[in-house]
Design a protein that fits this description.
With about 120 residues, the protein is α/β, with parallel strands linked by helices. The protein has one domain: Response regulator (Rossmann fold, 3-Layer(aba) Sandwich), CATH 3.40.50.2300. It contains five helices and five strands. A five-stranded parallel sheet has the order 2-1-3-4-5, sandwiched between helices. The radius of gyration is 14 Å and the shape is globular.
């Protein structure tokens, strides 16, 4: 039996429990996953989990997602980041911030689309 390639490690930063449950179900066999519900948890898991890709919701209970992304970029400049947001117009914000994100998806989005974004980066 051929060796399976290692699964990509994806850190999902999302505080919405229903969405976390959807990610867990949909990506169960596809990725090795860790979940952070706050910015503080995300920073701890970046060090402990060493993700290949970060999926970041911009609305978090303890911090603004943009501020968190700027903080992450200081130590993890090359980490691919897929931003998820309820804000429809992100383009101006992303270009101004120039945060080297790997794209964004506006909620609600299709999980297959998120999977395609994750697979395309890194």
């Amino acid at each position: 039996m051929p060796d399976q390639p290692p699964r990509r490690k994806v850190l999902f930063v999302e505080d919405e429990q229903a969405l976390v449950a959807s990610y867990e179900r949909y990506f169960d066999t596809r990725y090795e996953m860790a979940f952070a519900r706050t910015g503080a948890e995300a920073l701890k898991l970046l060090v402990a989990f060493h993700p290949d890709v970060l999926v970041l919701d911009l609305r978090l209970p303890d911090t603004d997602g943009i501020a968190l992304l700027q903080q992450i970029r200081q130590g993890h400049r090359d980490l691919p980041v897929v931003v998820t947001t309820a804000y429809v117009s992100m383009e101006p914000l992303m270009s101004v911030l120039d945060l080297g994100h790997s794209g964004y998806l506006v909620k609600p989005f299709d999980l297959s689309e998120l999977g395609a974004r994750i697979d395309a980066v890194g």
